[in-house]
Write a structure and sequence with these properties.
- By secondary structure, the chain is of the alpha/beta class.
- It has one domain: Rossmann fold (3-Layer(aba) Sandwich).
- About 40% of the residues lie in helices and about 15% in strands.
- It has helices spanning about 10, 55-60, 95-105, 125-135, 155-170, 175-180, 185-195, 200-215, 220-235, 260-270, 285-290, 290-300, 310-315, and strands at about 15-25, 25-35, 40-45, 65-70, 115-120, 140-145, 245-250, 275-280.
- An 8-stranded mixed beta sheet has the order 1-2-4-3-5-6-7-8, with helices on both faces.
- Helix 4 links the parallel strand 5 and strand 6 (about 140-145).
- Helix 5 (about 155-170) packs antiparallel against helix 9 (about 220-235).
- The radius of gyration is 19 Å and the shape is globular.
């Protein structure tokens, strides 16, 4: 029996459409939630080995916005980028950055009437930051559990080193056993148990089920190995000085990947940024505390800024 989602009722009340778009030699599957003519569009980028399902609990908190979620190339049901063809786009940070910039361009967001917010979780925070440094234009930026420093320097860097060993074995093995190794359910469950901090038994069961169902959804071994290398070889701090839109960091006090001290250094390095630290949660804010994260995002978007409309003004209200 599949554990019920705590956010299903909220999500079911929001209209959703799905479409396929061709980007850099691959087919990206994306889902658009909420009113298509909303004054605010939030483009969300999920983390490593996830897919669009992971950020749906956040989407559920924004019924009045247009939220756009895509499966990263090579993950979920999106196909890989054109690695071996004429384009030669790799599944590294620059490749995913180029993909995100093209995706946002294809959405056709009218910046004159619509406020564009770009949100990234975990590995997605690195992709968003790289894209912004390479020309992506947005009105606001939200980074949830951002990778603020090299993953190996985190409070439980030993886990990252174990992950490096795990993926090296996956690369060393022949194709079929290597692919099976990288999808081991036992490893997925270990990661899920380690990262989940909630004491709510029902919520934990649902989180574990989400990881069991979607953590192994990647196209091939090459994609996941390249993306893993990108996730541990880059971090948001590399791009911080070039993130120019107003930016919100939503961090947590029990994150095993990036400590609060690194988040504090990161927020100081971004020209216009503020930091919210949620308590009692780790790297799975989007699963465990989406309501609290959404409240912080709403407060951030409601800030008055010179020449920058509030969300309701972007939707057409005249003050």
């Amino acid at each position: 029996m599949i554990p019920p989602s705590p956010y299903a009722r909220q999500l079911d009340a929001i209209p959703v459409t799905r479409e396929s778009v061709d980007i850099l030699g691959g087919t990206t599957e994306l889902w658009s939630y909420g009113p298509p003519d909303a004054g605010t569009t939030i483009v969300m980028v999920h983390g490593f080995r996830g897919d669009h399902h992971g950020l749906e609990p956040l989407v559920a908190q924004f019924p009045d916005y247009r939220s756009v979620l895509a499966d990263l190339p090579g993950f979920g049901i999106s196909t890989p980028l054109d690695v071996d063809g004429a384009l030669g786009v790799r599944h590294d940070i620059h490749g995913y950055s180029a993909w995100l910039r093209e995706l946002v361009g294809q959405l056709g967001v009218d910046r004159g009437t619509t406020r564009l917010v770009v949100l990234g979780h975990s590995f997605g925070s690195i992709i968003v930051s790289a894209a912004l440094s390479e020309g992506l234009r947005a009105d606001d930026v939200v980074l949830v559990n951002p990778i603020a420093a090299p993953a190996l320097s985190g409070p439980r860097g030993i886990l990252t080193r174990l992950a490096v060993f795990y993926y090296k074995v996956g690369a060393w093995l022949p194709e079929r056993p290597g692919f099976a190794w990288l999808r081991l359910r036992l490893v997925t469950r270990f990661i899920s148990i380690t990262m989940a901090k909630t004491r709510d038994a029902g919520l934990r069961r649902w989180i574990h089920d989400q990881h069991d169902r979607f953590f192994g959804a990647f196209t091939n071994r090459r994609v996941v190995l390249d993306a893993f290398e990108a996730s541990v070889s880059n971090d948001v701090s590399e791009y911080a000085s070039r993130i120019t839109p107003p930016t919100l960091l939503v961090a947590s006090d029990r994150d095993d990947i990036t400590p609060v001290s690194a988040q504090e250094r990161l927020v100081a390095a971004i020209p216009d940024a503020r930091l919210v630290v949620l308590e009692g949660v780790g790297h799975l804010v989007h699963y465990e505390k989406p309501r609290e994260a959404a409240a912080a995002i709403e407060a951030f978007l409601a800030e008055r800024r010179p020449g920058h409309p509030r969300p309701e003004q972007a939707a057409g209200e005249v003050s």
